Each structure stands twice: as C-alpha cells, then as structure tokens.
C-alpha cells in the first residue's frame, strides 16, 4: 500500500535554504582524511579546491572515498555504541543522487535485504542526498527502518509497542491502513519527505525478516507469540561529515541480545513482559526480594539468543560484545586516537557488573564526523510530527576564481 500526501508546511516545489557549509569543519575533516589515508596524497590541493567550491556554491561534494571514510569514522566516534570493533568493515552505499521520496523508500527496503545477507547480518549504511543551500535533503521520519506499531485500545492499553503509539496514529492520519486484525508486531510504514512531498509506503514482506522467539527448555514460551526483526537499522540520525549534513543515512550493525531481551521486550513503557514471564515461571512476583525480575529477565534473554542462533541470524551476547569493545579500545589507543564512550550506554542493561566494560572510566570528547540525533528528528519518529527543514539564511558566495589564483577565467 502506498499513498502520497503534500506536507502542509512545505508547498510543492518550495524548500528552505540550508546554511552554508562551515569551511573550518571541512578543512578539519579533509586533514583527518589525508592523515589516515596517506595514499590519497597531500591535503593542501584538495583543501584549496574545497574552499573554492564552498565559496562558489555554499557547499562541496565529497569524493566516494571521503564519503566512505567519513561514514565509518562517524561510527567509530559513536560514544553510545558498544559494537565499534568492526567499524572499518561497514559497507557504504553511495546514493547521493537519490532524493525522490518513493525512490528513497524503495532503497531503504533494499538496504534491509542487503544488510540481512541471508542471516549473516553485515554493517551497512545507505547515504542519500545531502542538505545543500536552497535544497534540503530527504528526511526519513522513522526511528528505525523496522519498528512495530502501537495500537491504542478502548481501555487505554496499547497493543504492540507503546513507544510508537503516537507515530502509529500519525501515519493513520496520513493514510496508512492498519491490518484488519492488528497484532503486537505490525511493521510500521516508512515515511519519507523531500522536495515538498511526503511519501508513505509499506515495507515489502521480503525486506522485513523476523525471528520467532522460543526458549531452549520452556515449551510454553512459544505460546507468547513473540518475534523480533533481524536488522536494527537506525534511520533518523543525521550523518555529519566535514560540515556537510546527510539527513537520510540509515545504518545498521547487528543486534546485541540485551537490546531486544532487556530493553525492547521488558521495559515497562515498551512490551513489559517481565510480569507475564515471571507468572508463567511460577515465581513470587509480589516481593522484590525474590529477585523474580532478574530471573525472568535471564530467561527472556536466553530465548532471544537461542532463537536467533537457531534461525541462523547474527546476534551477539553482552559478555562477548563487552570483550570486543575493550579490544576496540586497545586498538584505538595503539593508533594514538581517543575513543569516546558513554558509560551509561556501553555497560549492558543486564549483568553489567559481570562484564569487563563496567570496571573502568571512559573519555567523552566530542569528535567529528558524527551521527546526530536532534530533538526535531525525535519528535518526527515518536509523534509523527513533520521534520523541520533547515532555516533560511542569507548567503554570500564568493566567485570561485578568487580561490584559484585570483584570476577571472577567460570567456570562451
């Protein structure tokens, strides 16, 4: 099912002008790129060209090598991600020529197919058109390419994921038809805005690979009817490289089990499964001292890891991933680089004190290139509020020949 609607706040064919690229950020990035890629030659000629391009157009275009490097380093700099050991292996799909909303949505579905890779999930990023003066790039409203609807019920409860109840209502107003028989795991449609148009599309079935959740020992666990999608593709974070902003750049690694089993399925404001699982385990859920929550949490996480492994889908446990992160930290230190890390995100949400990442402090510098999650994108992904386009700013551009030796090119 696909419908098209016009964005009320942005008439067709009209777009606000994006700010001019910060030249200092561009130079900073180019110096980093050439320092870590000596085969690219000296930085000075490239910097001179980019300064001229910014002066003439207000922005500049990354080479394919610069784009790939910038995207991978943005992952390397992600302080909240524990799985950065394989940052160099991220595959980069350069789709900067794509900005039409339906085409963006179709390529997002293709991203999911490529990333799934027959179950051997591969780190992947798809980079769409950047913001440019006078023409903002496309915006993907969804927080992740695959997330489940939250259907509000007459009694005030929510069937599905309560986190996305507001978004579910918003896409309904845009024309999405809920399934005749709503379930707790209905994939939400993709919403993409670009060039004054908002496009709503349902993900193809072959792009949404899900894993039914069963327990290795508890037969009744399958009766809960749980499942989860295989590819965690974040889609509402802006990729910023050398001052150039790519607002639509969905990317993924693979799941760490606790993301599903200790957060998505168990947080009280999400699927809140602990009480039901505790009851079925026959635990005393009336007193915290029985540690019933801890015991139920372990069994849910065992089911997640077992199910993904049985389905042949890549997943990692929090102990393995913690050890990998410390290996990444050591490699970065040997390379003479600082590795930013947010302790509250790096330490797993289950058995944190049993993992080696718990027992140390981390540096928290702000490094670029980076992935940015702003309040505007968060509102779009949770409430279904149309993303705000970059503000209009006065633009003073310098003739390109000023940067190229000061001589005006002769007219032919």
Description:
Helices cover 32% and strands 13% of the residues. The protein has 412 residues and is of the alpha+beta class. α6 (257-264) packs across α8 (292-311). Residues 6-16 and 392-412 have low confidence and may be disordered.
Features:
4-stranded antiparallel β-sheet, globular, disordered C terminus
Categorize the overall geometry. globular
| Computed Rg | 23 Å
Q: How many individual β-strands? A: 17
Mean of all residue-level pLDDT scores: 92
Largest sheet descriptor = 4 strands, antiparallel
The side-by-side strand order for the widest beta sheet comes to: 1-8-7-4
Structural class: alpha+beta
> How many H/I helical runs?
11
Distance between the termini: 53 Å
Runs in which pLDDT lies below 50 for 5 or more consecutive residues are 6-16, 392-412
Roughly what percent helix?
Answer: 25-40%
């Amino acid at each position: 099912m696909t419908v098209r609607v016009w964005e009320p706040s942005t008439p067709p064919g009209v777009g606000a002008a994006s700010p001019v690229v910060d030249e200092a950020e561009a130079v900073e990035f180019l110096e980093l790129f050439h320092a870590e890629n000596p085969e690219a030659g000296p930085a000075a000629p490239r910097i001179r060209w980019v300064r001229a391009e910014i002066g003439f157009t207000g922005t500049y275009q990354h080479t394919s090598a610069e784009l790939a490097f910038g995207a991978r380093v943005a992952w390397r700099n992600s302080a909240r991600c524990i799985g950065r050991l394989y940052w160099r292996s991220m595959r980069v799909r350069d789709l900067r020529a794509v900005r039409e909303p339906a085409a963006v949505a179709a390529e997002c579905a293709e991203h999911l197919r490529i990333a799934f890779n027959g179950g051997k999930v591969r780190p992947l990023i798809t980079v769409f058109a950047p913001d440019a003066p006078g023409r903002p790039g496309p915006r993907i409203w969804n927080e992740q390419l695959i997330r489940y609807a939250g259907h509000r019920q007459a009694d005030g409860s929510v069937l599905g994921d309560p986190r996305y109840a507001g978004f579910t209502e918003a896409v309904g107003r845009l024309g999405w038809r809920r399934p005749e028989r709503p379930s707790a795991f209905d994939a939400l449609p993709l919403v993409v805005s670009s060039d004054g148009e908002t496009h709503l599309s349902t993900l193809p079935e072959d792009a949404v690979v899900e894993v039914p959740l069963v327990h290795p020992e508890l037969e009744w666990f399958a009766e809960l009817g749980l499942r989860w999608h295989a590819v965690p593709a974040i889609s509402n974070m802006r990729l910023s490289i050398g001052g150039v902003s790519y607002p639509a750049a969905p990317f993924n690694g693979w799941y760490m089990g606790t993301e599903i089993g200790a957060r998505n399925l168990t947080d009280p404001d999400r699927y809140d499964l602990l009480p039901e699982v505790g009851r079925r385990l026959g635990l005393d859920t009336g007193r915290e001292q029985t540690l019933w929550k801890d015991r139920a949490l372990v069994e849910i996480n065992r089911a997640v890891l077992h199910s993904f492994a049985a389905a042949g889908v890549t997943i990692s446990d929090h102990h393995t991933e913690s050890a990998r992160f410390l290996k990444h930290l050591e490699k970065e230190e040997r390379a003479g680089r600082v590795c930013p890390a947010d302790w509250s995100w790096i330490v797993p949400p289950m058995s944190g004190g049993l993992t080696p990442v718990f027992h140390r402090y981390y540096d928290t510098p702000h490094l670029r290139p980076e992935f940015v999650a702003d309040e505007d994108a968060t509102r779009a992904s949770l409430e279904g509020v149309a993303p705000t386009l970059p503000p209009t700013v006065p633009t003073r551009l310098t003739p390109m020949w000023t940067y190229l030796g000061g001589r005006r090119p002769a007219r032919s």
